[in-house]
Amino acid sequence: MHRTWKRLLIAVLIVTAASPAFADRRDHRDRRHDRHDRREMKRAERRAMRAPPPVRQERWKPRRGYVWVNGHWDWRGSDWVWVSGRYERERSGFRYREPTWVQQGGAWVAVDGGWVAMGPTVAPPPPRQERWKPRRGYVWVDGHWDWRGNRWTWVPGRYERERLGHVYRAPRWEQRGGVYVNVSGGWVVR
């Protein structure tokens, strides 16, 4: 009888251990420990990360229609690896920002490079006062500042023929990522 109870107890333990609910609890616990271990490894890796070595000088020749992107150091696993420079096709209205490493809170953090919009970094001057007279069937569109070349240029106001059920929205400049971006105006439905 003692053996029967023992066998029954072993069978219950085997069935319980193999049941999905028990396995789910075990998996959840294992995943939580894995996440914790991965976080600890990343923290230890950041603490062990040394400053990046000096940037290598690469030889390159200007190529029409292309921009040279300098190589940079990348942290992979436990050491710095050099990523060679390359040519990128030029993009009108954009410039290429080199990737860099900065130290934050005692750890080295990558600042991604990539294409960023070129444009003004200073706000446009205040709008100019323009004289105009109301005209039947027309809407006066105020003048505005526009960025042309490397300077602000005044675009004078003008009359626009009215559009039934529409209203004219003036263009404006908004600061985004340290650069002023033109939000174009135009006719919108009321």
**What does the main sheet amount to?**
2 strands, antiparallel
Overall shape:
elongated
The amount of helix comes to: 10-25%
- Summing up helix and strand content along with how strands pair, one would put the structural category as alpha+beta
Write a concise synopsis of the structure shown.
By secondary structure, the protein is α+β, with helices and mostly antiparallel strands. The chain has helices spanning 2-18, 20-48, and strands at 66-69, 72-76, 79-83, 86-89, 94-97, 100-104, 107-111, 114-117, 138-141, 144-148, 151-155, 158-161, 166-169, 172-176, 179-183, 186-189.
Question: What are the defining features of this structure?
Answer:
190 residues, alpha+beta, 3 domains, 24% helix
